[in-house]
Amino acid sequence: MDETSIKVQGKKHWIWAFTTPAETFVVIRKSRGTKVLMEVLTRRFKGMIVSDGWKPYARFTNCRERCWAHLLRESKDLAEKSAEAVPLHKALTRRYKKRNAALEEDPPPGVRRRLWYLARATLKRWIRREYVSEKVEKFSGKIENGFEYWFTFVIHQGVEPTNNRAERALREQVVQRKIVGRETT
Known about the structure:
Layout: E1 2-8, E2 11-19, E3 24-29, H1 34-41, E4 49-51, H2 55-60, E5 64-66, H3 68-81, H4 86-103, H5 109-127, H6 134-145, H7 152-155, H8 164-180
Parallel strand pairs: 4-5
Antiparallel strand pairs: 1-2, 2-3
């Protein structure tokens, strides 16, 4: 899932994309909050949400995977600004690639559980380090705040590690917004 701003009769609204491998459902709402998730998915929703770290997703369900594309983009940006962030960015990138490679063979649940455990242990070591840079420390805290949801894709077969599908569903809207010159945040 993902959402982005859109102007409707000059007023800020949000366009939401809910995607599966087979379908995409898009709605435009005034809200960017949990009530949209409740309206569209309802309380009966039993699926897995792959999303960025936007709080309404966390309020809606604990069945989540945090988006690794967002995490890696942010860590790369931080590494370009702070030398202290370079080793952390490299470690996150290695961890992500290593887990994806290990899952290519579709290992059985026991192996997935072991991969999940090892990935979490390594990530925990990185986020428990003390960082001098306030920005790197804050980023580490962000990773720690979402800790339970960084490796859901490892233990749950079929869960993607990124919300890129939803972002692609919204890409045309984002491009049009930039072309028209009505960029909003």
